[in-house]
Amino acid sequence: MRAQLERIATSPESSVNGVNLIADAFPAPWHFHPQFELTFIRRGEGMRHVGDHLAPFSAGDLALLGPNLPHMWKSYGKCAGSAHAYVLQWPVELIPAGGEFVAIHRLLEQACRGLVYAGDESVRIGAQMRQLLTRNGLNRFVGLVALLDELSRHTWQPLTEGNYLYDRAQDSHSRLNRALAFVQENYASPIRLGQLAQVTGFSEQQFSRFFQRTMNRSFSNYLMEYRLLRAADTLLSTELPVARIAQQNGFPSLPLFHRKFKQKFHCTPLQYRRK
């Protein structure tokens, strides 16, 4: 399966591409590109897909991605100006190896799995990225090096599993986008494998193999995790009763929701809310 290849044009004055993205929702589909990418979410919330990784994102999210690592930030909904991100992208060969760049290169090697930062440091880096977007040429490059040097000293968490390997041999990039969009729009209702097969143009067996190979997990496991993550978000952002949250996120019974929630988060829904 192939994600959509994004071709990034750089300015003649700068090898570091910078984007100040403001939109109703984050528009990029499941895609990849040969450049490194650093993304800071200033405003917005949704689900972050990076390789076989799946997790909610919100304001303050900071991620460093290596080249050709498929990814997508999918907003929960659309609202005028609700999605705002700073993005920096640069070619692999831009930063020389060795010497003063040893720590940065160690960081970039780890970025092949995707890295995420949290806490006050991500907000501080986001502010620095905003300043870099106002620069060009050598000034932007020097600023990027200083920023990466700082990131190399901060704590990060890897996103993809160590055994994740993305297969770009098959030309079917739009199929996964259709499958993920279908889940986002219908996760609160019962979803049958046959519906996904129809949406993607596969047989049920073909779709199951396709999804397992692409996302490094079965579709049923992905759907369960997606529903649990959405439910966890709702627990923290609302005062709705747990039974209502379970129903709104596609769980047909409250005991099933409690059991699956505890398996993933090692606590009950109410304990999670109190934390």
From TrEMBL:
This protein's UniProt keywords? DNA-binding, Transcription, Transcription regulation
Q: Does the keyword Transcription apply?
A: yes
Q: What domain of life is recorded for the organism? A: Bacteria
State the Gene Ontology terms under molecular function: DNA-binding transcription factor activity; sequence-specific DNA binding
* Domain (HTH araC/xylS-type): residue spans on this chain: 177-275
Q: Which SUPFAM superfamilies match?
A: Homeodomain-like, RmlC-like cupins
Kindly indicate whether the keyword Transcription belongs to this entry. Answer: yes
Protein name (database record):
Transcriptional activator
User: From which organism does this entry originate?
Assistant: Simiduia agarivorans (strain DSM 21679 / JCM 13881 / BCRC 17597 / SA1)
Q: What is the lineage of its organism?
A: Bacteria, Pseudomonadati, Pseudomonadota, Gammaproteobacteria, Cellvibrionales
